[in-house]
Amino acid sequence: MDVSINQVLRLGQQKLKRNGNDNCVTEANILFGYSANKTLENIFTHPEDRVSRRTRGKFMQLVERRVGGEPISYICERSCFYSNEYIIKKGVFIPRPETEVLVGVVISEVKKNRSGKLICLDMCTGSGCVGLTIAKEVAVNIKKVFLVDNSLKALQCCRDNQKAMGLEKKTRLLRSNLFQSIPRIKFDYICANPPYIDRGEGESLDVSIRQYEPKGALFSGLGGLSHIKKISSDSTNFLKKNGKIFLEVGYAQAEETKSLLEVLGYKNVESFRDLNKIDRVVVGTWKK
Question: I want to staple 50 with a disulfide (CB 3.0 to 4.6 A). Which of 2, 128, 169, 236 is the partner?
Answer without folding.
Answer: 2
